[in-house]
Amino acid sequence: MIAKQLYATGVLLVLAAAGFAQPAKTAEKSGMEITVYNQNLGLVKDRRTMTLQKGFNEIRLSDVAAQIDPTSVHFKSLTDPNGVSILEQNYEYDLISPQKLMEKYIGKEITVKIGEKQDTVLTGTLLSVQGDGLVIRTAEKIVIVPNASRLVEFPELPEGLISKPTLFWQVQADKGGEHQTELSYLTHGISWKADYVVVVNAKDTQTDLNGWVTLNNNSGAAYKDASVKLIAGDINLIQPEVREMMAARGGFVDSAAKAAPQFEEKSFFEYHMYTLQRKATIRENETKQIALLEAAGVPVQKVYVFEPTVRRTWNIRPGSNPETKVQVKLEFKNSKENHLGMPLPKGKVRVYKADTDGSLQFVGEDEIDHTPKDETLRLYVGDAFDLVGERKQMNVQQISDRVREETVEITFRNHKDEAVEIVAVEKLWGDWEILQSSVPHRKKDASTVEFPVKVDKDGEAKVTYRVRFKW
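User: That's the sequence. What structure does it adopt?
Assistant: Structure tokens below.
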């Protein structure tokens, strides 16, 4: 007995001297951090405590995101960064499936049970898995087994097939013991966006604004008790050839009716970063909402805009005439004086207003781009029912080969019980000049001019202008 123990010990010493070692033992995760970008991308930092042996070690981690970008993986020891070197890094993703299991057993012996009660047993060499059945060579003959009503038994799992995507390292450690390690990688399948709710008061002069962060995780992994950071901005990405992964859609919305802002915002490079001030768990295949900001009593102005020269063909209802529609827009400034002032990430804005019964009703929605502080937002929420605009080209004169003059008449009719101001927006081309106008005009940029027109209740108003184009 003692001799056998000495012999076994000697074998282990020889194996260790030859450079073989047991896989590193992985402890519980000691920290998780995830940075999520707008562009379906996340940066994961996973900290763990590992026991490494001095010399050669093998490390396997299978609880990583299924949509990981393996070329972005970085592993290091925080305890001894200069003493642990990576010899080899692999990403194994040959996952178990019935088809792959069959293909791995071509040329090997399998057992198949067939029949309604699976009481007929065939044992033989698997020749083919193509088409609608299996081709098996038994001791007496070759048999085709249809796919229906069969049970296939394999003696063992073939080498190379795994149940989860796995990262594998071969590392060399100068000293053994516990190491704090950090694994970082990029993964697709996780993204975030901002959603806003705006509630307008009865007079359309103030609004309450609530912002939400909506996280959508289809990356193929869960992130438990993670530090969450969000990057707002459009980073440049070279589209890689990423292996297609099946990712379920759906989940539930984890939100409260009203919550205090929980994110700290700061500039980062040429973007803005929002850091959640607490830990959060982002489950696999989950949509989660977290409060971003809350502002009450934001001064707002309702603006009526008539812009027929910019055709909104994607929003035309059957039978409607886009040339007569007057847009309704809400305008406010993202400033501290207006109880805002935080850079707003791009996202959808839904607008509500209370009716005469006090119930909130949905009145429209728009989408904003990334908006810095002290910039003005203008939300297009719909078309005015009781306002009508008409644009007519009254006269065209070709002065010379490169000079042309046009006369345009715009008519507004107001069927509301109050006077309104409508801004006529005209898009002009070339080198243009307003020669004459019945109302004052504002040049907004090189191709845009505005004509503010006041229209009495149940009244009509016109603006006529003459413009010269040169090219």
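Residues 93 and 165 are 5 Å apart (CA to CA).
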